[in-house]
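note to self — DONT lose this again. spent like an hour looking for the file last time. sequence + predicted structure for the chain T wanted, 638 res
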Amino acid sequence: MQQVHQQYAPRRLALDAALASAAGTAAYRDSARARFRRVLGPLPARTPLRARVVGTVAQVGFRIEKIIYESLPHHHVTANLYVPAGQGEKPAALLFCGHEQTSKATPSYQQTARLLARNGFVVLVIDPVSQGERMQLVDPGGKFLTRGGTTEHTLLNAQANLLGTNLPAEELWDNVRSLDYLLTRPEVDAARVGCLGNSGGATQTAYFIGYDERVKVAALCSYVAAGERNLTLTGPADGCVMLPGAGAAGLDVADWPIMFAPKPLLLLTGRYDFVDQTDLEAAYADTRRAYAALGAAAQTDIFTYDDGHGISVPKRAAAVAWFRRWLGASGPAVAEEATPIALPEATLRCTATGQVATAFKDEQSLAALHLAQARALAKARPTYSPEALAGVLQRELGTYPVLSLAPGSVEVRDTLRLPSGQAWQAVVLRRAGEPPLPARRLLPPAGALAPTRLVLWLPGQGMATVLRDSAARLAAYQRQGTAVLLADLRGLGETTDPAAFNDPKYYNQEYRDASLALHLSRPLLAQRVADVSLLLAYVRHAAPLRDLPLVLRGDGRATLAVLHAAVLAPLFAQQSSTAKRTLASQVEQVQVGSGPPSFQYFLENPAAKDAYSEVVPGVLRSYDVPDLHRALGARLIP
């Protein structure tokens, strides 16, 4: 979190300076749009929509059409189109749903669409991926493989990250194609199109208006995005919100509304919403300053009601009034139905089975598309020499060696004496701006000969587990004259995030740490490799250890850090005059166990847990774990 605050400090200064003038504001807005597009990455090419109307539900004053189209070949989108009665072109709205599993059939979204339709708007309500009829992780019988949509979003985002893209970009593409479809309809006036959404749907709306310039008016209800304050207070959200690199790009909650300026934009908030109101009010204040600087202060507003999360009756009435005002709806305003109507989900269903995964034999889920892309990348990757692979790792991880230890960076603490008689000296290694790195060094017994080799053991479950459960192994090392250094890489053992164990829905033991690391463009795996580099620097400077042949040992969530560090060690040695004398020949063996066999494993097993601990964005475009195994050759002992 300290790193998050440090990363956002320049953004606040830049924004304040920009909002002092219209030219500065326009330049900041355009820069934010460009930075957002860079974070999104490349989007697909447009392909035929193959849209069809598969049913119609007649209502008083409008009809509801059940629509299916393909945002990508054989990747189906289900949606409901609300079409008012009457001739001629009409204003239109895209309605993006929040995280309710029923999605387009959720009563509040039905009632929002009905109110807009009764006021003369054509409304397209879309099932996002992993909701409604578009669950992506199902077995052949259609049974969900996870606990629900937010879990799916998060797992799919990890997969996409490994390929160099992200779920928000994939969801955005669905929405771009949805607008493409909406504009094919003869009832729609392309010059009068708005967009609104609630909760996760407000996130979709914010990302959409930051990208697609065809939208003229927007409303965000219970708006959620990843920014400095909400990451601090509530931690990362699910995978349809989290954009790797957004923090490094300086994008905060207010920036997506600012990207839309000076087009009309309304924020809808609940005074008792779990979304932090101070954050939203601060984001609105910045947004209003931007609109004022552009001479359009009247074109943004905030509506707050004394309720909680969601698009309630007062909020949707305010949204419809906003759309009527700015999109030029004709006729008198129409109030919501006296008795709210919510049709059964089955009535609005577009597919015969209730899920695209089972309704279409040729359906390509996002998981299947991810895996196909990973396999294609694997075929195209070169075979690296160990030296070339080390260069690739350094480029992809952004990891550079710790060449020396700063004064005061090594803190020697207590000595722990075990019932076995072993004495373990506590050591804490420090680097400016980084978490402390706790370690324990096995002290030789009195009268023992000098050690003949060193085992640097990095356990995935922490040092305490090794000290408790591996007494026989440690005793054998001591008998063999082997020095042992245990350490807890960041986020493991003594530095475990206490919040890591209280939210299982994201299928990851350290989702907060890993997601924040990706937000910063400092993947957790890369940070752990840097920790190993710090430990190697300590070894180089510790007289009894520096000339010993080294065994690197790791398991669990430390396995990939050990493998990467072992491949990088010779490269690090080339960059350090001190290390050249010892480290190039020092790592004689690498012992690993229970880690993932590949990054592609997480695409082959899309419901696998703890993927985020290992995510390096775009890694599968450059290398995979088997490349590390080949580079280490006979030194690797599984």
